[in-house]
Amino acid sequence: MIIQDSLPPLCRNPRRESTLSTLRKSASSNWTVNDIPSQAGTLAVVTGTGGLGYETALALAGAGAEVVIAGRSQAKGQDAVRRIVERHPRAAVRFKTLDLASLDSVAEFSGCLTAEDRPIDLLVNNAGVMATPRRHTTADGFELQFGTNYLGHFALTARLLPLLRRSRVPRVVNLASLVHRWGVIDFDDLQGQHRYRPNAAYAQSKLAMLMFALELQRRSDAAGWNLRSNAAHPGFARTELIANGPGTDSFAVKLSLLLMPLMSHSAADGALPTLFAATAADATGAAYYGPRNRLELKGPPGTAVIGRQARDVAVAARLWERSGELTGAHWPSSK
To answer: Domain of 111: which CATH number?
Structure first.
């Protein structure tokens, strides 16, 4: 078993009372997949075919949503569909190819959904890569983690915004990470060309995802897009993310494996904060959800700590503008 978000979090910051009150009721009830409201009649798009993406799609399909699983590997995608249908024989679930490391692929995927001309009720920006030991680049020349985890999702959300706006109550959920608290948006070296550090690049990409969620809500409120944009993290979840990134040779990963029996939980449990953010009536825009127990490493979903740097509105606005320049993403400026 492999670990996602396995580095221990920083010390907790004081939580805002208004944020605490949002989840007081749900936190006391140990929210599970059984608490997901009926998703009948909704269309959900989930990026990522394994681990958290699979568990998210499985739960949404089980609750009655029509689910589009989007990922790079057709074999993994079709396998995810098969396993979901085995669990829920009446599930409406399908796979579409999407390589977030290619803006052309993002455009093609979005174009296919646009041609279907159906409102999208939920977009879960989940897929990602973690701490590749050597610097790699996407098809468009972006550092792989920043390009895949963040810029690909930024462009995808922009392209799907017209379909999201046609939903009565559209939601966008971004997958961030505990390690966003170590992240810095390095505008002088966003792509790690001068100095590439695997963990720092990963932390930057996850900080960007959280800042994107918060800024998207601010811009939606200002422009009347009617979105509910929030973010979630899985805590210390057993997934294949590390196996697909740094492997298991580093000291941090070996330490994580030693702590796993005590501090981790399953991918299914790790998906609960995402599912809460995506479906719960109590989940609000501009909020961040994660496991409640053991320093947010495991446990039922609750309000997560947002790092100070993620609340920097000026940096978020600058990052938004720079991301638009890099991806060519177009966002409407008004209602």
So the answer is: 3.40.50.720
